[in-house]
Amino acid sequence: xxxxxxxxxxALDLPSGEEAETFLSHWQGxxxxxxxxxxxxFYATGPRWIYERxxxxxxxxxxxxxxxxxxxxxxxxxxxxKLGVDFLTLHAMGGSEMMKRARESAEQFASSSECxxxxxxxxQLTSTHEKMLHDELGINSSMEQAVLRSAxxxxxxxxxxxxxxxxxxxxxxxxxxxxxLAVTPGIRPIGASANDQKRVVTPTAAIQAGADHxxxxxxxxxxxxxxxxxxQILQEIIEARGKLR
Length: 245
Ligand SMILES: O=C(O)c1cc(=O)[nH]c(=O)n1[C@@H]1O[C@H](COP(=O)(O)O)[C@@H](O)[C@H]1O
Known about the structure:
The chain is an alpha/beta fold. 47% of the residues lie in helices and 15% in strands.
């Protein structure tokens, strides 16, 4: 898979396995895209569907945003690791002990170290803005400080990277290390509606900020021609990468 395709992940926020498969048939004859499966599709289909897609050769990001006591999360990671998914999310707000136990489980239950499920910690959701952080969550720092605090905690606890907005990707890389993954949802091509997202950036801005992967849902899934929308974003990634050199 070329670099740009590896970087672009489609959030398959769709209601059933059947609809997801019909949607993915747009890519027939092309390399399989990276797919992210979140609450809606996972609760509709379950682990078997994920396992089957993995067997078909999809790279899968399972976005279950685990957040519970350390033992419960460790046991969940144990079950999920057996599916062989590539990425899995958990909330950094669950704390360092929870994240460490998750990492231990992922290592223990991977069928080999190359296929260990990589753990990504959610810092602050991209639907959160600074006023919400202060007024609703009781966090009295700036958004960047709050995100960096979670990212450093996740890094120390042994996660492979974080979910953040492209607005914070650069600062996270500087505060941790370049290989610590910055995966950025809240991607909006110029002119696209932000919907419920608050901290949005364009594909170009995310690449310029050093994002490793871009998660794109509605800009592709709701497009009249999803494959064309996917290719337009791929092209934008390729051009932005070209300008980095
Ligand atoms: O963990 C995620 O993937 C995630 C974290 C976050 O902070 N913000 C966020 O939007 N996401 C997910 O990324 C996708 C974004 O979808 P669109 O807004 O439609 O592009 C959704 O599937 C969200 O669940």
